[in-house]
Automatic annotation (TrEMBL):
It catalyses: a 1-acyl-sn-glycero-3-phosphate + an acyl-CoA = a 1,2-diacyl-sn-glycero-3-phosphate + CoA. This is 1-acylglycerol-3-phosphate O-acyltransferase. It comes from Nelumbo nucifera (Sacred lotus). Pfam families: Acyltransf_C (PF16076), Acyltransferase (PF01553). The lineage of its organism: Eukaryota, Viridiplantae, Streptophyta, Embryophyta, Tracheophyta. It is an enzyme of class 2 (transferase). Residues 363-387 are annotated as: Disordered. PANTHER family: 1-ACYLGLYCEROL-3-PHOSPHATE ACYLTRANSFERASE-RELATED (PTHR10983), 1-ACYLGLYCEROL-3-PHOSPHATE O-ACYLTRANSFERASE 3, ISOFORM E-RELATED (PTHR10983:SF24). Pathway: Lipid metabolism; Phospholipid metabolism; CDP-diacylglycerol biosynthesis; CDP-diacylglycerol from sn-glycerol 3-phosphate: step 2/3. Belongs to the 1-acyl-sn-glycerol-3-phosphate acyltransferase family.
Length: 387
């Protein structure tokens, strides 16, 4: 990590680590003392507590970097957002797609109950991974033999969730790159599938499982398309930490869960067809620079994340002052060395967080791609290796 970047990342990292540890402690105490008595009460408390941590990341986009997330959807969908359970499927264009989702969830009032399917290793990441575990994110190992039952159990637990939630699923299974697109195009050509230009071919087995297990209590699927205008730089976590702005366009199409086909094969084909439409939509966006078929919805820039960060900062300064005064930490070489070691640890943890943001989000679709019923079924294994 460059020195200039570290000069920005470290103070933010100290704040995030401090607030995260406080949040994790509260979550752990509630998990031990409250959850055995009332799971609903635990979830309601955790929703508020987790949001105090996630709002810091929303603040990074909204107030620090000034990244503009512009939403295009119809009025009915816009009014429904945050008021119903929803399964989100999205293309995976950049390493901050998940943060873009959090921004929209915060605007919709359901940030604390926004969930995702993640790699199992993610839950061991200090602060953010631990908070995700307490918040009932679903963690998988990328082995369908092991994960099929885990996914079913994780989704089943959401049946009695007391507040509207969003569950995010990146059905492409990996982040879009040019090399992965070429591999997807080669696979599509060999199997007779539509050749993609802007997306990867969705791996539908996880999506089919999610629909099968959530159909009875989740009324809608939000088909999300993320695009970066061609005259804007692609946002990354490092650019955001540096305070560099960008623009992200998000298109949402709401589908009623009850309108999906009844069979697993039908649901898989529905998902593949949705990504063919998404591909064409991105072609149009590339030419026009907008999603002209849907209304632009002004989501504003709520001050809540700014107030939360200011509050955490004041608390951190107060605690640090009292601790230094009590311990005389900076009055000896040993204390100075201890402080330097602590800042180095924060730098390392924030570097890991940036790498985590850039890594592939695991989805059940990634683990077990559904085999389309076309002549090239034998090529699935080859595609798995390529992507």
């Amino acid at each position: 990590m460059a020195i200039a970047a570290a000069a920005v990342v470290v103070p933010l990292g100290v704040l995030f680590l401090f607030s995260g540890i406080v949040v994790n402690i509260i979550q752990a105490v509630c998990f031990i003392l409250v959850r055995p008595l009332s799971k609903n009460m635990y979830r309601r408390i955790n929703r508020v507590v987790a949001e105090l941590l996630w709002l810091e990341l929303v603040w990074l986009i909204d107030w620090w970097a000034g990244v503009k997330v512009q939403l295009y959807t119809d009025s009915e969908t816009f009014q429904s957002m945050g008021k119903e359970h929803a399964l989100l499927i999205s293309n995976h264009r950049s390493d901050i797609d998940w943060l873009v989702g959090w921004v929209l969830a915060q605007r919709s009032g359901c940030l604390g109950s926004t969930l995702a399917v993640m790699k199992k290793s993610s839950k061991f990441l200090p602060v953010i991974g631990w908070s995700m575990w307490f918040s009932e994110y679903v963690f998988l190992e990328r082995s369908w033999a092991k994960d099929e039952s885990t996914l079913k159990a994780g989704l089943g637990r959401l049946k009695d969730f007391p507040r509207p939630f969003w569950l995010a699923l990146f059905v492409e299974g990996t982040r879009y790159t040019r090399a992965k697109l070429l591999a997807a195009q080669e696979y599509a050509t060999s199997t007779g599938l539509p050749v993609p230009r802007n997306v990867l071919i969705p791996r539908t087995k996880g999506f089919v499982s999610a629909v099968s297990n959530m159909r009875s209590f989740v009324p809608a699927i939000y088909d999300v398309t993320v695009a970066i205008p061609k005259n804007q730089p692609s946002p990354t976590m490092l650019r955001i930490f540096k305070g560099q702005p960008s623009v992200v366009h998000v298109h949402i199409k709401r589908h009623l869960m009850k309108e999906l086909p009844d069979t697993d094969d039908g649901v898989a084909q529905w998902c593949r067809s949705a990504f063919v439409v998404k591909d064409a939509l991105l072609d149009k966006h590339l030419v026009e620079g907008t999603f002209g078929d849907q209304e632009f919805q002004d989501t504003g820039r709520p001050k809540k994340s700014l107030l939360v960060v200011i509050s955490w900062s004041c608390l951190l300064v107060f605690v640090a002052f009292k601790f230094c005064k009590w311990s005389s930490l900076l009055s000896s070489w040993k204390g100075i060395a201890f402080s330097a070691a602590g800042l180095s640890l924060v730098t390392i943890l924030m570097h890991i967080f940036i790498l985590f943001s850039q890594s592939e989000r695991s989805t059940p679709a990634k683990i077990a791609p559904a085999r389309p019923k076309s002549g090239g079924e034998s090529s699935v294994t080859s595609r798995d290796k390529q992507q």
